[in-house]
Write a structure and sequence with these properties.
Blueprint (H helix, E strand, L loop, with lengths): L6 H9 L2 H13 L3 H16 L2 H8 L3 H7 L8 H10 L25
Helix pairs in contact: 1-3, 2-3
């Protein structure tokens, strides 16, 4: 019988793929929980580039500042987020909240 692998190890393997990492971050962001999104960013950094030290080097940001910014209580700036995303080979984008939802039929009302 094959030994099972820890979940975190498998998760890191999956997050090495940029598409999987992007979907994972999108889902974390969609939940509306900033702490969950920051944890997801740390997980992707670990998987894709080896962790916070490598992230610090790639972003030219202080490692301790990154730990604080991406902690559950942290409040990263937009610049920090864009640098982190770029270092991970990803980017932020904006879509309508109802993207993926079926379009509602529109009705027109005319005045006479």
């Amino acid at each position: 019988m094959r030994a099972s692998r820890p979940f975190h190890t498998k998760q890191l393997e999956l997050l090495k793929d940029p598409r999987s990492a992007a979907i994972y971050l999108e889902e974390a962001l969609a939940e509306g929980d900033a702490a969950a999104f920051k944890l997801a960013l740390r997980n992707v950094a670990e998987a894709r580039i080896g962790g916070m030290t490598a992230l610090s080097e790639r972003t030219a940001l202080n490692r301790e500042s990154l730990y604080r910014a991406l902690s559950a209580e942290g409040n990263p700036t937009f610049e920090t987020l864009t640098r982190v995303m770029h270092a991970l080979g990803l980017r932020l984008s904006v879509t309508p909240e109802d993207a993926g939802q079926p379009e509602r039929p529109t009705t027109s009302v005319s005045a006479e």
